[in-house]
C-alpha cells in the first residue's frame, strides 16, 4: 500500500506574559469528513475529524510528542499483527499510550470544552475498535499495537499519548488512524532469484549456493 503525507505548518508566537497559565492550553482543529467506507463507525461520510493537542504554559520549555509517519500497513484476518505506533519526545519526557474513542466535534461554552465522540457501529466500542482474538490493544509504555482481527473492512481508531515530566502530566496529543483488514491468500512465497557476482545462483534451504547455474 502507498500513502501520501501532507504537512501543514505555520509559525505562531505565544508571548510568555499572556500564556503562562499553569493549567496549560490546547490546540484543536476539525476537518470534514471521514472516508465513507469506514466500517466501524456510524455515518462515516458525515462524521468529522477533531484533532486535539494539549501543552503546558510556554514558560515551561517543551516539545510535544511526535508520531512517526504511517507506513501503509494492512492487517491479514486471523493472523497476528503488530505495529509500532509510539511517538518520540525531544525532551525525553515519559509517554503513556491508550486507545480512545475518536472525536468528531467540540463545543465551547463559558470556558468549558465538551468533546463529541464518534458513534460506534453495533458490535464496536472503545475496547473493541478492531474486533479480534485478541482485539486491538496498545502497550501503554511502548505504543506497540497488536491485534488478531476477525472482521474484514476499514477500521478507524484513535491513540492518545500522555506526556509526563517528573511524574506530572504536562500534555497530551491524539492521533486518528485507519487500518484495513483483508483476507490474505495463503500461498507459499515464490522462489527468489538470487544473483552472485552478476550471475543467477541457486538458493537452497535458505542458503545461497555460490556455484553459478545460469547466466542472467
Describe, in plain words, how this protein is organized in 3D.
With 216 residues, the chain is mostly beta strands. Helices cover 0% and strands 44% of the residues. The protein contains no helices and 16 strands. It has strands at residues 25-31, 49-55, 66-67, 75-76, 81-84, 87-88, 94-100, 103-109, 112-117, 137-138, 144-147, 153-165, 168-182, 194-196, 199-204, 207-214. Strands 1, 2, 4, 7, 12 and 13 form a six-stranded mixed β-sheet that branches. Strand 10 and strand 11 (144-147) form a beta hairpin. It is globular. The two termini are 30 Å apart. The model has no long low-confidence stretch (mean pLDDT 89).
Itemize the secondary structure elements and their pairings.
Layout: E1 25-31, E2 49-55, E3 66-67, E4 75-76, E5 81-84, E6 87-88, E7 94-100, E8 103-109, E9 112-117, E10 137-138, E11 144-147, E12 153-165, E13 168-182, E14 194-196, E15 199-204, E16 207-214
Parallel strand pairs: 4-13
Antiparallel strand pairs: 1-2, 2-13, 3-6, 5-11, 7-12, 8-9, 10-11, 12-13, 14-15, 15-16
Secondary-structure-based class equals mainly beta
- How far is it from the N-terminal to the C-terminal residue, by CA? 30 Å
Strand/helix succession: EEEEEEEEEEEEEEEE
The share of residues in helices is under 10%
* Total of helices: 0
User: Any low-confidence stretches, pLDDT <50, length ≥5?
Assistant: none
Q: Count the strands?
A: 16
Radius of gyration: 23 Å
Global outline? globular
Strand content: 35-45%
Mean pLDDT: 89
Major β-sheet profile: 6 strands, mixed
